[in-house]
Amino acid sequence: MSTIDELKSTGLKATLPRLKVLEIFQKGKQRHMSAEDVFRVLLDEHSDVGLATVYRVLTQFEQAGILIRSNFEGGKAIYELNEGHHHDHFICTKCGKVEEFYDEQIETRQKAIAKEKGWLLQEHTMSLYGLCADCAKGAQLQR
C-alpha cells in the first residue's frame, strides 16, 4: 500500500506535511522519535514544515492508529509506527536509546499473574531502564 493510500484509508487527506512525516517513520533509521526528532529531520531536508504542524500531524496519526505514542522517562512523548504487534522496550538512561524486545515467556507469565489476580488484561506496556551495551562499556572503562 502506498503512503497516500495508507493515509486515505485512515480518513486523512494526503497533505504534504503528513506525507513527509509518515515517510520519516517509514524510511528513517530511527524507529522511536519525539516531535523534536521529526522536526530536526525535516529541517535537515530543508522542509518548511513547522514544529506546531509536526505536533498536530503526530497527534492525528496517533488518533488514526498509524503511530503509537509512549511516554518514557521524563514524560517525553515518543512515537513509532504501529505495525500491529506487541513489543516491550529497553531505554538507556544515559544516551536515550530505545530498543525493542519481545519475550513469549514474559508475556505468558504476565497473563497468568493477571488471571490469578482476577484481572482481564486489555493492554500493557513494559519499559526497562538501564544502560545500553555501548554506554555500559563506557561505564566499565571508567571504573
From TrEMBL:
Keywords: Cytoplasm, DNA-binding, Iron, Metal-binding, Repressor, Transcription, Transcription regulation, Zinc. GO terms for cellular component: cytosol; protein-DNA complex. Zn(2+) binds at residues 92, 95, 132, 135. The keyword Ion transport does not apply. Its cofactor is Mn(2+); Fe(2+); Zn(2+). The keyword NADP does not apply. Binds 1 Mn(2+) or Fe(2+) ion per subunit. Binds 1 zinc ion per subunit. Its main location: cytoplasm. GO terms for molecular function: DNA-binding transcription activator activity; transcription cis-regulatory region binding; zinc ion binding. It is found in: Cytoplasm. GO terms for biological process: negative regulation of DNA-templated transcription; negative regulation of siderophore biosynthetic process. CDD domains: Fur_like. InterPro entries: FUR, Fur_C, WH-like_DNA-bd_sf, WH_DNA-bd_sf. Belongs to the Fur family. Homodimer. This is Ferric uptake regulation protein. It comes from Hylemonella gracilis str. Niagara R. The lineage of its organism: Bacteria, Pseudomonadati, Pseudomonadota, Betaproteobacteria, Burkholderiales. The gene is fur.
